[in-house]
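Z., the sequence and structure:
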Amino acid sequence: MPEPVIRPVADPDRDAVIGIFNHYITTSFAAYPDKPVPPAFLAVLREGAYAFDVIEAGGEIVGFGILKPFLPFATFARTATVTTFIDPAHRHQGYGTLLMETMIREAKKRGIIMLLANISSKNSESLVFHKKYGFFECGRMYEVGIKFNEIFDIVWMQKDLAPRQTVLKEETVPLPD
């Protein structure tokens, strides 16, 4: 594996980033859109991001990671979402690990203590990857997506970046009928 460099995304990275994203759009449940996105979609990926980094190896963009606010309210300033994508030709070479570790470090620098990821239930490899890095399933939205004529769930996974000795949880209040 060439010595990788992780750096903020720049405009010249647009085609490589969108190419990776479009691969997953057209071949898997990893990216949610149902058809390829144009190069201008880079602005959508970048919008509001705390960090939007590419990983480069041998002069080639081999993946990207995004750290974004969970919700746009100060109430949730300590919570963020993380997304990573690796070019299919470079998977299983440690680049995903490097990106995830970078996103976690960036989150901690920003005072983020809860990291979330939303993943298609049909993307078992990503579910396993996140579990490997300490994420656990914290919620599921059933049958909310349809892609390739298949219905899928969105699985929410969570990682506590600042575990405490005791976790105070409110009692669950039953929902009214």
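Residues 36 and 76 are 32 Å apart (CA to CA). The domain at 5-160 is CATH 3.40.630.30 (Aminopeptidase).

Let me know what you think.
H.
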